[in-house]
């Protein structure tokens, strides 16, 4: 289950960093756009529609450290609300609804195609010294899709289409940005040659993001509900 996967990410992050240190150049496998899953790119992409959080799935954690503060955050596909240990249940429900609604409002805005394009433009300008949405030979589009379950992102340079897996929607920003940047580079370099990774290394949290996704995938595959 995803809940178990999330708990193990920290452990696998360190294991993945160790593994990454032994991989170099074009021999380094891509966890972003697995070449074995080309059929997903050929299939018609299914547009992502943001789903509001089901309040019944929210995990409420009582914390001795939370004397007065109540916080809500995403733990990958899970939403967690921390409350003071002694807070009455009747008071918790109202806070959960308010805070989760705020999270949903924020995430729904960030999932819009307009903001996604703005995010990609900033990465392109900052790390590639150009705005690929203007300089690429054909118009560039970027969107979330729901039919990519064995890869995190994909790019078709011929038509300028970049697709991101909806599974990343609630992952940390540095992970999403790393995948976006990875696919932006594919507009310039179609393979995973040394030249590709030379550009990829310009993104300072590239290896950290790869380790995160590697640990997430490993945990999902190997941890089941107790």
In short:
By secondary structure, this protein is an alpha/beta fold.
Which homologous superfamily in CATH is the superfamily of the largest domain?
A: Metalloproteases ("zincins"), catalytic domain
Task: Kindly provide the radius of gyration, computed on alpha-carbon positions and rounded to a whole number of angstroms.
Answer: 19 Å
- Helix/strand order: HHEEEHHHEEEHHH
Uncertain runs: 1-30, 34-42
Number of domains: 2
How many DSSP helices? 8
Q: Would you identify the CATH architecture of the largest domain?
A: 2-Layer Sandwich
Strand order of the largest sheet: 1-3-2
Shape: elongated
CATH topology of the largest domain: Zincin-like
By DSSP, the count of extended strands is 6
User: Taking all residues together, what is the mean pLDDT?
Assistant: 79
CATH class designation of the largest domain: Alpha Beta
Strand content: 5-15%
Alpha carbon gap, first and last residue = 9 Å
Name the helicity range.
Answer: 40-55%
Instruction: Please describe the biggest sheet, giving its number of strands, its sense, and whether it closes into a barrel.
Output: 3 strands, mixed
The helix-and-strand class reads alpha/beta
